[in-house]
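Incident review: delayed structure delivery

Summary: a single-chain prediction request sat in the queue longer than the usual turnaround. Root cause was a stuck worker, restarted by the on-call engineer. No data loss occurred. The affected request and its eventual output are reproduced below so the record is complete for anyone auditing the incident later.

Affected input:
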Amino acid sequence: MLPSSLSTPDDLAKLVSDIKTWATEFGFADARIVDPDLGQHKDEFNNWLDKGYHAGMDYLANHGDMRFYPEQLHPGTRRVISLRMHYLPQSVETVKRLQTKDKAYIARYALGRDYHKLIRKRLTQLAKKIQEHVGDHGYRAFVDSAPVLERQIAEQAGMGWIGKNTLLLTPKAGSWFLLGEIFTNLPLPVDKPTASRHCGSCDACLTQCPTDAFVEPWVLDAGKCISYLTIEHKGPIPEALRSKMGNRIFGCDDCQLVCPWTKFAKHTEEEDFQPRHNLDSADLIDLFLWDEETFLKNTEGSPIRRTGYENWQRNIAVALGNAPTTEKTIKALQQALEHSTPLVQEHIQWALTQHQSQ
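Output delivered after worker restart:
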């Protein structure tokens, strides 16, 4: 039963207006309301799984149909509040850093504090703000941590459209933002869905992907994606892909960087998204010399922790193999051979071979 303060359509419309105002106060760039219809994505998602395009991310095949039916994730769900938050600091270079081969390139969302913690906190604050005004509304907050089709939800909420690179795009901010959701039992008025996708004939994200990870528009083979290879993948990186990875050691932004909508990107002023430990401009060798204790200390509260120290070393060894040949680079690789794990040693040997062939 709804509280008396929400007894009319006008009351609910006023609440939606307030929610969007509060969302801005909590640092979100946009908030939209949707009654998602996600069953239409079931066959497409399952076909993607059947073809093995999820690579080693077996967890994506778990949870049955839960991701298509929000009420199974949060009983009583009637609406989803979809929100986005900008994460790219204005001071951070992108293309220039990719072109400086002795510097490390880390996906720009991962330079600061773990976004899961920041956005989840703000979502909870917003949900509690709603609760202060209407009472217990039955809610659950999500930030990329459950079987939620967040981009499809955001598209249906009218926040933007899913681009050929599988990212959500908006005409006002490109794709340099992160998504979060509040599942609520309130019957809020919904926003209009995105009428159409505005990629047109552009295929820059498809043709300029370093590892040709896109099978076709809107279809990503994660097994070839640098983000997957440097973060989720365990074991050796396929040798055929190593030279294509350049200096990207954690994640990849290329399909965003080449997207024409990126020119409309908005920057963040969130302190938690500002670079830590000079990760936006660090030398590959300096990062390669971190021991595990230093890695754990410098990545505390960071999404980089997800890859683990061994894979961090593996990734940097590949990047050093793609770096300019210098005595310092070769020496760093040779010195690391003795105390590295067999996995890292394999990639160091590959890197040394690259320099010997030049």
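Verification: The beta strands are 30-34, 79-86, 105-106, 139-142, 161-162, 168-169, 177-184, 214-216, 219-220, 248-250.
Action items: add queue-age alerting; document worker restart procedure.
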